[in-house]
Amino acid sequence: MSEKKYDIGLMGLAVMGQNLVLNMVDHGFDVAVFNRTTSKVDDFLATEEAKSKGDKLTGAHSLKELVSKLKSPRKIMLMIKSKDAVPAPELALYPENAAVDAVINELIPLLDDGDVIIDGGNTQFKDTERRTKFLQQCGIRYIGTGVSGGEEGARRGPSLMPGGDPEAWPLVKDIFQAISAKVGPNNDIPCCDWIGDRGAGHYVKMVHNGVEYGDMQLISDAYWILKNALGLSNQELYEIFAEWNKSELDSYLIEITRDIFTVDDPETGEPLVDKILDAAGAKGTGKWMSQLALDLGVPSTLVTEAVYARAISAMKALRVHASKQLSGPKDAKFQGDRDEFIGQVKQALYASKICSYAQGFVQMQAAAKEYGWKLDCGKIALLWRGGCIIRAVFLERIKEAFDADPNLENLLLAPYFKNAVEGAQAAWRNVVKTAVELGIPAPGFTTALTYFDSYRSERLPANLIQAQRDYFGAHTYKRVDKPEDESFHTDWINVKKS
Ligand code: NBP
């Protein structure tokens, strides 16, 4: 009797890998698993849940054995740490991603032409660009896919953002779309579709994470203003976020924020959120998005400010010291109508969120142009509609905006978002003004408003910057009253002064 062959192999049995495997089996696929530390293969297969899957699940104790158990063309998914310290600098543009390179190198001699390797980790897109091209030369098809939604998403339905070699997509499409989250009136639209060539999937996943940074910072701004300007309790904050979650802000992150305010610390009986050290961690995808925005010259200020906000939060000891040296408004409270102000904070949050998403889509469009991908922004918005951390009702509106105008250059120009931001702007300005007056930092709200004001300004003070550059460095300038291809220089020292 011939040995059973499995639909897909997965390497990397940490939290994401295990849950994806169980999800695949639940959707009818036969899966073979492997892990570098092979005892984890046995431990996993010995769990009650894995045992309940019967012969739909099998283990391997080497990559060779894993490969031997797969149907042809073989599909092997890697869910391994994307930032490992294994040094392989001659291969990796980003040496922290070298673990994936090491495994690929081991796999190449074991695979046949047309087999597929899939990297589901949070990999820097330039590594995925490089690996796709390299493996194409070896006859192997490569996919770099974003996987979002954490442990729960992996188990019940993640948002998947695959890119790479387009010839690989038909081979994994059924598995990927089956296991992904579903949205739509009949809950049958998969939050997974082909994103584009080479590193496009990992780029979009990175922007997803950057937008997540922005969302989290904006929600934290709202929390901090409500708590400090109005002195609200956690119960009151819970009620406000519960209300907001029934509105246009309806989203996973608002929902979990609401719930966080209800949890007490088992040790002290006090609200747990107040016991948590105010020093935010980060794994780096927000920083990548910000760095790559700088490379492209696009203003993704929300994610950048959110990264900086985490950085300054992490300087806890320095802040404690500075708080004793530097003064500001002391315990000042908002004096106006409380309920009206809460409504204004909600509008400030919504308008800022729109700016944040507008920036994310602008960055993806600029990256697509730079790296030669064809991105469908409406489709991307839909992929984020379910299964991932930034899932939100509002993404439907983004999809509609790009459906109406696939070449939309900025979400702020789409009628729905233009009306929303213009309708919110008086409230938004009042919230920012109040935060400034009371000395409450609101980095997300303020940077979003600055972006909005800059973007809608026909003229900015950059004329003065150009004059300064020409004054000290003869960098030349262009004139508003002359053709754009003409450059001018002035001898600023000897010129006649008025
Ligand atoms: P981790 O990121 O903690 O990685 C642990 C896995 O990587 C283990 O299976 C480990 O094997 C394996 N591994 C390491 Br570490 N170095 C390796 C190497 N040099 N060669 C082969 N395998 C190696 O697991 P995770 O949190 O499940 O995440 C997996 C991937 O999914 C990561 O890239 C992560 O960025 C991405 N991701 C995670 C989440 C999330 O919410 N956690 C969400 C979305 C995407 P071992 O058992 O032998 O140490």
Overview of this protein structure:
The protein has 498 residues and is an alpha/beta fold. The chain contains 20 helices and ten strands. Strands 3-2-1-4-5-6-7-10 form an eight-stranded mixed sheet, with helices on both faces. It has a two-stranded antiparallel sheet with strand order 8-9. Nicotinamide 8-bromo-adenine dinucleotide phosphate binds next to α1, α5, β6 and α7. The site of nicotinamide 8-bromo-adenine dinucleotide phosphate has 26 residues, from α1, α5, β6 and α7.
Short description:
By secondary structure, the protein is α/β, with parallel strands linked by helices.
Task: List its traits.
alpha/beta; Rossmann fold; N-(1-d-carboxylethyl)-l-norvaline Dehydrogenase, domain 2; eight-stranded mixed β-sheet; two-stranded antiparallel sheet; 20 helices; 10 strands; binds nicotinamide 8-bromo-adenine dinucleotide phosphate
